[in-house]
Design a protein that fits this description.
binds zinc ion, alpha/beta, globular
């Protein structure tokens, strides 16, 4: 179920009459109506349109965005993603930032890592604030003998050395939620069930010959062990979304690692439905290490006029959402998540059959998770503004 803006406003107005201004000032939690006033960052989106509509809506909601480019065949080619990001950065330097990426094609050829470093360097000069490496490393890329290439493969080492030395954050999506190794009917959240039903090639339960969940985590950790000063962001709760205890151990072991919550808030809610206080304590204890993020993905449009985008132009694609639709979807998601983190309301969420009780985190914790951590971890982003 999704909440309309009207519904939110009515609920907010109903809650107001009993509260004096003093009580509101003393309130340790934000309320729904604070949503539009508190600076926020969504640190994991995929913006593929150069039309300004969505970013204008984000700015109205006081959201800044980190758009992440990915080496993914279902996305526009990397050069197109880079071009779109440069255009959006030019138009919204205070509200838009992006992470560059690189293709793993030819990863075992001589000179490959030098060429990748040169591309990263060029992207950083054009404003990229981080570099993403995707799950195709560990789940798709094979070596000449047919074995899966993992993230700690020596061919990648010069690139991660370079990022470490130059303090460029690496955004890592390695492995998948643990649900990926379970049958569909054993998965804990419906978004995983839907995704793996639609993408059987990534549903590892069906591919027992592929690396295990533990193999993925081990390879990622071994890469981090080799790069103790690397600014690492474990995307999707570092693929440890199923247990805040495991995640706490990871964050303790790697003091330069942070995490985002992208597409895994349902997993947090699954846990808070069972261990409410434990999840709340985790978010408070690790308040400096966690970033709010959604993973919402915008459809490409034909605005940049390149061939790929002409082929997949929104008006020719019946499943494509118009840009206004995307802004509406984002606002609904942002408001639903805001209610979960800031109030004690019981809410319905698309990922779970059971309703979820909000965590009502302290304002200072929300400020960190929703913006201050992102400003610290990506110091060159959003016009270096402090807001
Ligand atoms: Zn993503």
């Amino acid at each position: 179920m999704k909440y309309s803006l009207n519904y939110v406003l009515i609920m907010v107005l109903m809650g107001l009459p009993g509260l004096s201004p003093e009580a509101v000032a003393m309130d340790p939690h934000y309320r729904m109506e604070d949503f539009y006033n508190v600076p926020k960052v969504d640190t994991h989106m995929h913006l593929h349109s150069t039309r300004p509509d969505f970013m204008q809506a984000a700015v109205r909601a006081r959201f800044k965005v980190l758009s992440i480019n990915v080496d993914y065949a279902d996305f526009p080619p990397i050069d197109d993603q880079q071009r779109t990001a440069e255009i959006l950065l030019g138009e919204f330097p205070q509200a838009f930032a992006y992470a560059a990426t690189f293709s793993v094609k030819g990863y075992d050829q001589p000179g490959w890592s030098d060429a990748v470093i040169a591309r990263i360097d060029a992207a950083v000069k054009k404003g990229a604030v981080a570099v993403k490496v995707w799950k195709n490393v560990g789940m798709e890329l094979r070596d000449r003998n047919g074995a899966m290439v993992m993230i700690d493969d020596p061919h990648f080492r010069p690139i991660f050395d370079y990022l470490e030395k130059n303090q460029i954050p690496l955004l890592g999506h390695q492995g998948e939620p643990k649900n990926c190794w379970l049958p569909l009917d054993k998965m804990t959240v419906s978004n995983d069930r839907d995704y793996f039903a639609a993408h059987p090639q990534y549903h590892m339960y069906l591919h027992p010959d592929m690396p295990s969940y533990e193999d993925q985590m081990r390879a990622r950790n071994s890469m981090l062990d080799q790069h103790p000063k690397l600014q690492f962001v474990g995307l999707h709760m570092a693929s440890l979304e199923w247990s805040v205890d495991e995640l706490a151990r990871f964050l303790d072991r790697y003091p330069n690692a942070n995490i985002d919550l992208a597409a895994r808030i349902g997993q947090l809610q699954y846990q808070s439905n069972r261990h409410y206080e434990k999840v709340r304590r985790f978010l408070i204890k690790y308040q400096d290490r966690i970033m709010y993020a959604t993973d919402l993905e915008q459809d490409p449009d034909s605005a940049t006029g390149n061939d790929y985008q002409k082929l997949t132009a929104c008006d020719q694609n019946p499943t494509c959402k118009a840009d206004g639709e995307f802004a509406k979807e984002a606002l609904q998601t942002w408001l639903r998540d805001w209610r979960y983190f800031n109030t004690t309301a019981t809410i319905t969420v698309p990922e779970l059959a059971r309703p979820v009780k909000g965590l009502a985190l302290p304002k200072s914790v929300v400020d960190k998770i929703y913006s201050q951590n992102a400003q610290r971890i990506f110091p060159g982003a959003w016009g270096k503004s402090s807001q």
